[in-house]
Recover the amino acids of this structure.
């Protein structure tokens, strides 16, 4: 009856919601990674599959249009922070240990 839609879909797949969700996930996941996973190595075998499943859920939600898609993209981006930080810093710690004190 009218040309204006009831639900406004965002023009960009990314927005403030994506940023807010990604920042919240970076804070929570990195905090959990550095407090629990790094000191207890066997815990990596439990956390890694859970993180991969959660990233997959975020990818499925990211395919949705509108706000749900933004929420899913934020989940995916933020959830990658834990494994990527381990991937970057573990070799750095190993190299620093091999070099020894300066």
């Amino acid at each position: 009856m009218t040309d204006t839609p009831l639900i406004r879909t965002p023009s960009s797949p990314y927005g403030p919601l994506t940023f807010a969700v990604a920042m919240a996930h970076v804070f929570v996941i990195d905090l959990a990674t550095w407090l629990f996973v790094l000191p207890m190595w066997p815990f990596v075998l439990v956390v890694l599959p859970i993180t991969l499943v959660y990233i997959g859920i975020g990818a499925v939600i990211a395919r949705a249009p509108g706000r749900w898609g933004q929420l899913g993209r934020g989940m995916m981006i933020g959830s990658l922070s834990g494994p990527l930080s381990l991937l970057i810093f573990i070799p750095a710690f190993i190299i620093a240990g091999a070099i020894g004190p300066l």
